[in-house]
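Cross-posting from the chemistry board since nobody answered there.

I work mostly on the small-molecule side, so proteins are not my area. We synthesized zinc ion and want a rough idea of how it might sit in this target. Sequence and SMILES are below. Is it possible to get a predicted 3D structure of the two together?
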Amino acid sequence: MEYKIRDIISFLDQLAPPAYQESYDNAQLIAGDPNQPVKGILCSLDCTEEVIDEAIQLGVNLVVAHHPIVFKGLKSLTGKNYVERTVIKAIKNDVAIFAIHTNLDHVSNGVNKRIADRLSLLNPKILQPKKGNLSKLTFFVPEDSKNQVLGAVYQAGAGQIGEYKDCSFQVNGMGTFTPSDAANPYSGKAGVPSYEPEVRAEVILPKYLSQKVVSAMKKSHPYEEVAFYLQDLENENQEVGAGMIGELESPMDELDFLDYLKERMNLQVVRHTALRWKPIKKVAVCGGAGIFLLGDAKRHGADAFVTADVKYHEFFDAEGQLMLCDIGHYESEIFTKELLSELLSQNFPNIALYLTKVVTNPTSYR
Ligand SMILES: [Zn+2]
């Protein structure tokens, strides 16, 4: 089967919905024609000119990168900096660039889960779940059509709470209506008040799927006019958010933990706060610049917080309450390219998939 670039995108969009990216982000198809057939995919952390060269050499026409090469927007394309040169080279050579960034950071099987897995953390949970991305749909349906409509809304993505699917709440009651002369009622007669036993069903759903779920409900519902209401919820979504926290199988002393961190994350160096001479058991992680989660890591009782891009004064903020470890931005996220390649290979086993061999890390150590 021949796949188009848009097929890869829609698969990745399901894994890491674009709606879950930060407002400043640019996770999307950045260059290229989504209708082109896919010749092969190159997975990388960054997309640079060298990565585009590698794609050309490999004969692939799609780069899936974590960091968007175009972040702030472009007002001209003249090749005056590496961003413009990368985009120009990609377009000239028919290589598409897709970025899957903070949306992949925020899903429970994304960048931070990969770090948690590298560190073999048990019971990994989202460190800072996001609010305001869940909705509730309440609808009214005759008893004999209940399962059909519920099945359709589940299929469209409603009714999932953690490890439980097909979640709903149902009560039986009485619906009333009087059809007009122009109506085409499923039951009842024009001008005659009707009393119909109905079920009131409530389901939870990700807000970004509202339209899809409402349309599935309407399509599967027997009534000409469906009574329903859709409400935004303030609830936290435990499946979506920043960072992760989990536990080591058994406590380690701090020096052993630092060695372990270096070995598991393939590090040359860790910048960290002073040793507290306390064992490390609970570990919070956030790939890339995660210092904004320091308060959450403390609140959840983390013994160590592993992240990157920590500034001098931010190390003070640890206040001796945990060991803050800066492992480097590239180092914290480099395994994302493997994550992408694994996810893609499961769904597209016949597409040629490559991991970039280009070391895009702009920093070095001596
Ligand atoms: Zn990053």
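Reply from a structural biologist on the board:
Welcome over. Reading the output above for you: Residues 254-265 form the longest helix (12 residues). Residues 330 and 362 are 8 Å apart (CA to CA). Happy to explain the token format if needed.
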